[in-house]
Amino acid sequence: MGKLRRRLFPVLILLFLAVACVAVWFLRPYPVGEAAVEAMRGGSGITVTDTAGWIRFEGGQTFQPSVIFYPGTLVQAESYAPLARLLADKGYRVFVAKMPLHLAILDAERANGLFKSFPDDVFVIGGHSLGGAMAAHFAAENPDRVIGVFLLGAYPDQRGDLSETGLPVLSMLGSRDTVVSREKYEVGKTYLPEDAVYISIEGGNHAQFGSYGPQPGDGAALISPEDQWKQTAVMLEQWLITLMLDMAKSPEEGTAG
To answer: What pLDDT sits at residue 227?
Structure first.
């Protein structure tokens, strides 16, 4: 038995190393695009604060609500800097989460850490792809913490059922997005409120919500990444303004935080 163990031990070590190498290979994050690297530098009135758990983007003025953003699977937080910077330029404070192993599914409760640090802010939460689904999970379990949810190339599952939360929802999808299953997307609508807002970005695809290059299985975009970021930022801004106007009309309902 002792000889057998000695013979098996090197084999098990090699097997463990092989599995580890495969895991590392498949868990490699997408590279951060050049536009994101440039946006991370700040300047022109935008302050970028890069911490262990979050990247915060702020402009010269701060409108409410603040924005919590969960990244897509294996997409680094920095990759959303172009979109976050556009929102910051419009006056919104944006927090992009740095997820463990770049997987939002490992820390859907990450947003909880912000509320004590910014007690005077009201928040919306959202994200891209699986990050959007995890943002929906958080909102479904903590509907009193946020005043709205936005989904970019994303849809909720049953655990992220927002249909009875009373939270406004904005869902945006690129017309050329072939990463998102249209069948699952339609099923996901059953977990959203009846008054959810759906917007199609004509010519946009899945990956161009961020800056990390092409994504396997995605459709070819007919618009530039810059165009998709700008359209997304404009529509998000309009939605955020509407949320605050609705809160002003019904202050008793705006107690999130």
So the answer is: 98
